[in-house]
Protein backbone atom coordinates (compact mmCIF):
# COMPACT_ATOMS: atom_id res chain seq x y z
CA UNK A 1 0.00 0.00 0.00
CA UNK A 2 1.35 3.42 -0.98
CA UNK A 3 0.19 6.59 0.77
CA UNK A 4 0.03 9.88 -1.12
CA UNK A 5 3.34 11.49 -0.14
CA UNK A 6 2.61 15.22 -0.38
CA UNK A 7 -0.23 17.62 0.47
CA UNK A 8 -2.70 19.40 -1.81
CA UNK A 9 -1.91 22.85 -3.08
CA UNK A 10 -4.64 25.46 -2.57
CA UNK A 11 -5.49 28.66 -0.76
CA UNK A 12 -8.55 30.78 -0.05
CA UNK A 13 -8.25 32.40 -3.49
CA UNK A 14 -8.45 29.11 -5.44
CA UNK A 15 -11.20 29.22 -8.06
CA UNK A 16 -10.74 25.88 -9.80
CA UNK A 17 -9.64 22.46 -8.60
CA UNK A 18 -7.80 20.03 -10.88
CA UNK A 19 -7.56 16.42 -9.77
CA UNK A 20 -5.26 13.67 -10.94
CA UNK A 21 -5.57 10.02 -9.98
CA UNK A 22 -2.41 9.27 -7.96
CA UNK A 23 1.16 10.60 -8.26
CA UNK A 24 3.44 8.86 -10.71
CA UNK A 25 6.78 7.42 -9.62
CA UNK A 26 8.52 10.60 -10.81
CA UNK A 27 6.06 12.81 -8.93
CA UNK A 28 6.54 10.75 -5.78
CA UNK A 29 10.30 11.13 -6.16
CA UNK A 30 10.02 14.90 -6.60
CA UNK A 31 7.33 15.21 -3.94
CA UNK A 32 5.18 17.37 -6.19
CA UNK A 33 2.55 17.13 -8.89
CA UNK A 34 3.21 16.11 -12.52
CA UNK A 35 6.90 15.46 -12.14
CA UNK A 36 7.42 13.27 -15.20
CA UNK A 37 9.30 15.31 -17.82
CA UNK A 38 6.97 14.04 -20.57
CA UNK A 39 3.79 14.94 -18.73
CA UNK A 40 2.34 17.94 -20.58
CA UNK A 41 0.42 19.44 -17.67
CA UNK A 42 2.75 22.38 -17.12
CA UNK A 43 3.18 23.12 -20.81
CA UNK A 44 -0.57 22.98 -21.43
CA UNK A 45 -1.66 25.08 -18.46
CA UNK A 46 1.06 27.65 -19.08
CA UNK A 47 -0.15 28.01 -22.67
CA UNK A 48 -3.76 28.35 -21.51
CA UNK A 49 -2.87 31.24 -19.23
CA UNK A 50 -0.25 32.80 -21.49
CA UNK A 51 2.56 32.24 -18.99
CA UNK A 52 6.11 30.92 -19.23
CA UNK A 53 6.33 27.21 -18.47
CA UNK A 54 7.34 26.87 -14.79
CA UNK A 55 10.36 24.66 -14.17
CA UNK A 56 11.16 24.51 -10.47
CA UNK A 57 8.68 23.43 -7.81
CA UNK A 58 8.66 26.95 -6.41
CA UNK A 59 7.91 28.39 -9.86
CA UNK A 60 5.09 25.88 -10.24
CA UNK A 61 3.59 26.88 -6.89
CA UNK A 62 3.73 30.56 -7.81
CA UNK A 63 2.12 29.82 -11.19
CA UNK A 64 -0.72 27.85 -9.60
CA UNK A 65 -1.47 30.38 -6.88
CA UNK A 66 -1.30 33.34 -9.25
CA UNK A 67 -3.83 31.65 -11.53
CA UNK A 68 -6.10 30.57 -8.65
CA UNK A 69 -5.61 26.86 -9.36
CA UNK A 70 -5.86 24.21 -6.66
CA UNK A 71 -4.21 20.82 -7.30
CA UNK A 72 -4.87 17.51 -5.63
CA UNK A 73 -5.47 13.85 -6.46
CA UNK A 74 -8.47 11.58 -6.04
CA UNK A 75 -6.58 8.85 -4.20
CA UNK A 76 -5.14 9.09 -0.68
CA UNK A 77 -3.68 5.58 -0.71
CA UNK A 78 -3.76 2.50 -2.90
CA UNK A 79 -1.85 -0.43 -4.28
CA UNK A 80 -0.24 0.51 -7.59
CA UNK A 81 2.43 -0.95 -9.85
CA UNK A 82 4.82 1.81 -10.85
CA UNK A 83 2.76 4.63 -12.38
CA UNK A 84 0.08 2.47 -13.99
CA UNK A 85 -3.46 3.70 -13.37
CA UNK A 86 -4.72 0.36 -14.68
CA UNK A 87 -3.02 -1.43 -11.77
CA UNK A 88 -4.64 0.68 -9.02
CA UNK A 89 -6.34 -1.41 -6.32
CA UNK A 90 -7.59 -1.02 -2.73
CA UNK A 91 -8.36 2.66 -3.05
CA UNK A 92 -8.88 5.08 -0.20
CA UNK A 93 -10.09 8.41 -1.59
CA UNK A 94 -9.02 11.85 -0.47
CA UNK A 95 -11.43 14.12 1.37
CA UNK A 96 -11.94 17.32 -0.64
CA UNK A 97 -13.81 19.07 2.18
CA UNK A 98 -10.82 21.10 3.48
CA UNK A 99 -10.21 22.56 0.01
CA UNK A 100 -13.87 23.31 -0.66
CA UNK A 101 -14.24 24.97 2.74
CA UNK A 102 -11.09 27.08 2.49
CA UNK A 103 -11.60 28.42 -1.03
CA UNK A 104 -14.59 30.78 -0.98
CA UNK A 105 -15.47 30.49 -4.67
CA UNK A 106 -15.16 26.70 -4.69
CA UNK A 107 -17.29 26.51 -1.56
CA UNK A 108 -20.08 28.80 -2.78
CA UNK A 109 -20.19 27.85 -6.48
CA UNK A 110 -18.46 24.50 -7.06
CA UNK A 111 -20.41 23.46 -10.19
CA UNK A 112 -18.12 23.41 -13.22
CA UNK A 113 -15.02 24.18 -11.17
CA UNK A 114 -13.77 20.69 -10.35
CA UNK A 115 -11.79 19.17 -13.23
CA UNK A 116 -10.24 15.74 -13.62
CA UNK A 117 -7.07 15.22 -15.60
CA UNK A 118 -7.99 12.24 -17.75
CA UNK A 119 -10.27 9.23 -17.66
CA UNK A 120 -8.76 7.41 -14.68
CA UNK A 121 -9.17 10.32 -12.28
CA UNK A 122 -12.67 10.97 -13.66
CA UNK A 123 -13.80 7.39 -13.13
CA UNK A 124 -12.22 7.21 -9.67
CA UNK A 125 -13.82 10.51 -8.67
CA UNK A 126 -17.25 9.35 -9.78
CA UNK A 127 -16.84 6.06 -7.91
CA UNK A 128 -15.43 7.34 -4.62
CA UNK A 129 -16.02 11.10 -4.27
CA UNK A 130 -19.18 11.96 -6.19
CA UNK A 131 -21.38 9.85 -3.87
CA UNK A 132 -20.00 11.87 -0.94
CA UNK A 133 -20.11 15.47 -2.23
CA UNK A 134 -22.57 15.25 -5.14
CA UNK A 135 -20.47 17.61 -7.29
CA UNK A 136 -20.10 16.43 -10.89
CA UNK A 137 -16.54 16.73 -12.23
CA UNK A 138 -15.57 18.05 -15.65
CA UNK A 139 -13.34 15.58 -17.49
CA UNK A 140 -10.40 16.96 -19.43
CA UNK A 141 -8.09 14.95 -21.71
CA UNK A 142 -5.13 13.50 -19.88
CA UNK A 143 -1.76 15.26 -19.99
CA UNK A 144 -0.05 11.99 -19.06
CA UNK A 145 2.81 10.60 -21.16
CA UNK A 146 0.48 7.64 -21.81
CA UNK A 147 -1.75 10.04 -23.78
CA UNK A 148 1.05 11.71 -25.73
CA UNK A 149 0.13 10.54 -29.22
CA UNK A 150 -1.81 13.64 -30.24
CA UNK A 151 -0.44 17.15 -30.75
CA UNK A 152 -0.21 19.38 -27.71
CA UNK A 153 -2.35 22.00 -29.50
CA UNK A 154 -5.40 19.78 -29.08
CA UNK A 155 -4.81 19.50 -25.36
CA UNK A 156 -4.37 23.24 -25.02
CA UNK A 157 -7.64 23.92 -26.83
CA UNK A 158 -9.55 21.43 -24.69
CA UNK A 159 -8.04 22.81 -21.48
CA UNK A 160 -8.96 26.45 -22.22
CA UNK A 161 -12.17 25.95 -20.27
CA UNK A 162 -10.21 26.23 -17.00
CA UNK A 163 -9.27 29.81 -17.87
CA UNK A 164 -12.91 30.77 -18.32
CA UNK A 165 -13.77 29.60 -14.80
CA UNK A 166 -10.70 31.26 -13.35
CA UNK A 167 -11.77 34.60 -14.78
CA UNK A 168 -15.22 34.59 -13.21
CA UNK A 169 -16.75 34.10 -9.78
CA UNK A 170 -20.15 33.59 -11.37
CA UNK A 171 -21.88 30.33 -10.58
CA UNK A 172 -24.05 30.64 -13.68
CA UNK A 173 -21.06 31.05 -16.01
CA UNK A 174 -19.24 28.02 -14.66
CA UNK A 175 -22.37 25.90 -14.71
CA UNK A 176 -22.85 26.87 -18.35
CA UNK A 177 -19.25 25.94 -19.09
CA UNK A 178 -19.69 22.59 -17.36
CA UNK A 179 -22.65 21.85 -19.62
CA UNK A 180 -20.98 23.18 -22.75
CA UNK A 181 -17.50 21.85 -21.88
CA UNK A 182 -15.81 23.57 -24.76
CA UNK A 183 -16.65 24.52 -28.32
CA UNK A 184 -17.42 21.58 -30.58
CA UNK A 185 -15.71 22.13 -33.91
CA UNK A 186 -17.67 19.59 -35.91
CA UNK A 187 -20.65 17.31 -35.49
CA UNK A 188 -19.62 14.86 -38.17
CA UNK A 189 -18.10 11.63 -36.93
CA UNK A 190 -16.18 11.23 -40.18
CA UNK A 191 -14.77 14.76 -40.09
CA UNK A 192 -11.04 15.37 -39.97
CA UNK A 193 -11.24 18.04 -37.28
CA UNK A 194 -9.84 17.54 -33.77
CA UNK A 195 -13.24 17.04 -32.09
CA UNK A 196 -16.29 15.08 -33.17
CA UNK A 197 -19.66 14.32 -31.59
CA UNK A 198 -20.92 10.77 -31.32
CA UNK A 199 -23.34 9.09 -28.93
CA UNK A 200 -23.85 12.26 -26.87
CA UNK A 201 -20.12 12.60 -26.29
CA UNK A 202 -17.41 14.85 -27.63
CA UNK A 203 -14.56 12.66 -28.79
CA UNK A 204 -11.01 13.89 -29.20
CA UNK A 205 -8.94 12.46 -32.02
CA UNK A 206 -9.46 11.14 -35.52
CA UNK A 207 -11.74 8.45 -36.91
CA UNK A 208 -10.17 5.20 -38.04
CA UNK A 209 -11.89 3.36 -40.92
CA UNK A 210 -14.48 0.85 -39.78
CA UNK A 211 -14.37 1.90 -36.15
CA UNK A 212 -16.14 4.33 -33.84
CA UNK A 213 -16.14 3.19 -30.22
CA UNK A 214 -12.38 2.78 -29.74
CA UNK A 215 -11.14 5.43 -32.12
CA UNK A 216 -10.47 8.50 -30.12
CA UNK A 217 -8.07 9.24 -27.32
CA UNK A 218 -10.64 10.59 -24.88
CA UNK A 219 -14.33 11.38 -24.52
CA UNK A 220 -16.31 14.12 -22.81
CA UNK A 221 -19.96 13.80 -21.83
CA UNK A 222 -22.20 16.47 -23.31
CA UNK A 223 -24.82 17.99 -21.03
CA UNK A 224 -27.71 20.02 -22.40
Explain briefly what this protein structure is:
With 224 residues, the protein is α/β, with parallel strands linked by helices. The chain is 33% helix and 18% strand.
Describe the 3D structure:
- With 224 residues, this protein is α/β, with parallel strands linked by helices.
- The chain has 2 domains: 2-182, Uracil-DNA glycosylase-like domain (Uracil-DNA Glycosylase, subunit E, 3-Layer(aba) Sandwich), CATH 3.40.470; 184-224, no CATH class.
- The protein has 10 helices and 10 strands.
- The strands form 3 sheets. The chain has a 4-stranded parallel sheet with strand order 3-2-6-7.
- Helix 2 (41-48) packs across helix 8.
- The chain is globular and about 40 Å long.
- Residues 170-224 have low confidence and may be disordered.
- Provide the low-confidence segments as ranges: 170-224
Along the chain, the helix and strand elements come as: EEHHHEEEHHEHHEHHHEEE
N- to C-terminal separation?
A: 41 Å
Identify the overall geometry. globular
Q: Name the CATH superfamily classification of the largest domain.
A: Uracil-DNA glycosylase-like domain
- Compute the gyration radius: what is it? 17 Å
User: What oligomeric assembly is this protein in?
Assistant: single chain
- Count of individual beta strands: 10
How confident is the prediction overall: mean pLDDT? 79
**Helical content (DSSP H or I, runs of 4+):** 25-40%
Order of strands, widest sheet: 3-2-6-7
Q: What is the count of DSSP helices, taking H or I runs of 4+ residues?
A: 10
